[in-house]
Amino acid sequence: MHIPIFIYLGTCLLVAITGIDRKMGFYGYFFASLLLTPVIGGLLVLVSAPRKT
User: In angstroms, rounded to a whole number, what is the distance separating the alpha carbons of residues 52 and 2?
Assistant: First the structure.
C-alpha cells in the first residue's frame, strides 16, 4: 500500500530535480507536482524558461 505513495513522491522529486535551473526552482516544481500531478509538473518544467543568472 505504501509503494504507490513512494513512486508518486519519487516522480515528484525527479520533476523537481529537472527544474532546478528553471524559473520556479526545485521547491516550486516539487509542490506543483505534489498538488497537481507529476505529469503536469513535468510539462511545466518543459515550457518554463531557464533562470537568468
Answer: 39
pTM, entire model: 0.87
- Say which residues have a Cβ less than 8 Å from residue 39's Cβ, sequence separation at least 6: none
Q: How far is CA 15 from CA 1, 4, 7, 43, in A?
A: 23, 17, 12, 9
DSSP reduced 3-state for 21: coil
Using one digit for the tens of pLDDT, what is the confidence trace for 4-53? 999 999 999 999 999 999 999 999 999 999 999 999 999 999 999 888 87
